[in-house]
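I'll show an entry:

:::
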Amino acid sequence: MNKQLDEEQVRKLQEKLKQMSPEEVQELIKKQCLFCNIISGNISSNKIFEDDKCLAVLDINPAVKGHTLLFPKTHFQFLNQVPEELTGHLFVVANKISEKLFEILKAEGTSIYVGNGQIAGQNVPHVMIHIIPRFEKDNVSIGWNGVKIADNEMIKLREELSTACKNIIKKKEAIEKPKIIKKVKYDERMIP
């Protein structure tokens, strides 16, 4: 049954939320969050990895066999809310799980995807990383049809964004270029 709240119920709920402390609001959100309930063990899952910071489970509605969801144990709705240290850890773990999908399932590739906000495909308000093994003719579609942006619009956008992004990472925070470990076949060419 899909029960809608009437205006009076919404008003009372909003009033109650205003009276709650930020900690109480966070606790209420966690009680309602699917992934927080998986973390707490209230909802069962097909766990494939866990440490003190994150949990990885097999998706119950996978794009393909092996589709994995990786998420932090602390509730964050959007990626920009996650502390940088934890973001780094999540992507290291995502990369390691990706390696195992290549190894175990003989995947030909992986798509590592974050839907940040409902419009971007985030169905649950808890940050998660999709790690999707890819195979030829797997019918998984993650893409878009490119649009042409007028040159003057592109120049204006570039100027605005380059100014805004000028100091987002200080030199000491810059990440070293990773070393290439092995060559991989890509579109009939060998890429170092």
In short: Residues 84-105 form the longest helix (22 residues). The radius of gyration is 21 Å.
